[in-house]
Amino acid sequence: MSPEVKPDFLISPEGLRVDGRRPDELRPIELKVGVLKQANGSASIRQGKTYIIAGVYGPRELHPRHLTLNDRAYLRVTYRMATFSVPDRKRPAPSRREKEISMVIANALKPALFLEEYPKAVVDVHIIVIQADGGTRCAAINAASLALADAGIPMKSLVPAVAVGKADGTLLVDLGDEEDKYGQGDVPMAILPQTGEITLLQQDGFFTREELLEAMQMGINSCNYLHELQKDALKRVYVRNPEDGEDTFDDDLEADLGESEIMEDE
Amino acid sequence: MAVYFQKREVVVPGQLLAEGRYRPSFGTYDEGGKIYSSLMGLAELKGNTVKVVALDGVYIPKEGDLVIGIIKLVAGNNWKVDIGGPYGASLHANNALRRPYSDDISEYMDMGDVISAEVSAFDRQSGPFLSMKGRGLEVLEGGMVLEVSPAKIPRIIGRRGSMINMINDHLRIDSVVGQNGRIWIKTSDVEKLRLAIKAFRMVEAQAHTSNLTDRINKMLAEEVAKLNSSEPSEEPSAEVETVDEEEFIEADTVSEPEISEAPESEPKSEAEPEVEVVEIEEPVEEESKPEASTDVEIESEDKSEKEEVNE
Question: Which helix (H) or strand (E) holds A94?
Answer without folding.
Answer: none
